[in-house]
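Section 5.1 Outputs to date
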Amino acid sequence: MAQTFSLCFVPYMLLLSSLFAAGVTTITEGELLSSMIGVQGLIYCKQGSKLTPLQGAVARVTCERADEYGYEAEDVTVLSQATDAKGYFLATLSSSEVKDSYNNKKAMRIKECRAFLELSPSETCSFPTEINRGISGAILQKYRLLENKLKMKLFTVGPFVFSPEETHDKSIPNGY
């Protein structure tokens, strides 16, 4: 089973390594969002020691914001598109989504962003787990700058895992 999982995971690793030709950078508190932010990852269902990609699952990204004077502003939240058949998701956040809702010309500063498990389409595998901080939120720390039209800062989180029952397990089964 571990071999099958590895074979499914290999194309994503190749895709990610080709996208990540640029160096890794860490986002700092108060950094102005001057480009698109992308958050990608994988979502699985864990049944016993078996991990299965979960198609149709959704992740959530929430960013704390501050105004130009450093005062806290309302958080901004975006949902990813539903995962594909291999459990891959991508959520994007543009600078226009971070602007001040009262004065759309003023940019807001991002203080911290976190990615969470949001929704499972499966009735038999619907409990989020804390694996890779799927419940408490994986802090977006390091990104790769994609030098394309969007100049996207691409963060990778997870993999996140749903379970058929409520669990406090933070580990990923052998073979991952």
